[in-house]
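Hello forum,

I keep getting stuck at the same step: I have a sequence, I want structure tokens, and every attempt I make locally crashes halfway through. Rather than fight my setup again tonight, could one of you with a working pipeline run this one for me? It's a single chain of 167 residues.
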Amino acid sequence: MLEVLAFATPNSVKVPIALEEMGLDYRLTPVNLRQGEQKTDAFRAMNPNGKVPVLIDRSSKPEEGGVILSESAAILVYLAEKTGQLLPQEGAHRGKVFEQLFFHASGLSPAFLQAFLVAMQSSPQSEAQARALAEVDRVLDVLNDGLERHPYVAGDTYSIADIAHFG
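Reply #2:
Ran it on my machine without issues. Output:
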């Protein structure tokens, strides 16, 4: 059985979405970030970065206690490769899926985080706010341009890249 340690965060929700799409059985174990459960020694033994989600697959490498993964994109790739679903085996389309996963991790997600952090400041500077919002607009334009040409973010087929962007 697969176990997902998660909290109600955008990255955590992607894993159960993928598991449901792939038809896999799993157990969801809540990690209360508000109470600091992600900072405990037990949790950090699974993910030294102290963040959710974490996937535990005890069916793989049982002699080592199973496979333990963190980072939502890495988990999505692992699940896709394990099941043979939502990730092409080879070729250009596979490359496009990875391109979108990396774009999400390096462009889209950081842009939204920066805009959120600037907005949360007690007195945000208008120049910083304008730059952060301009970056959000830019990365959304990149995403929208692709979606104007194809029904899914990595082309013509639904993939883990769609779950990463919209999960």
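The chain has two domains: 2-83, 91-166. If your local run keeps crashing, start a new thread with the error log.
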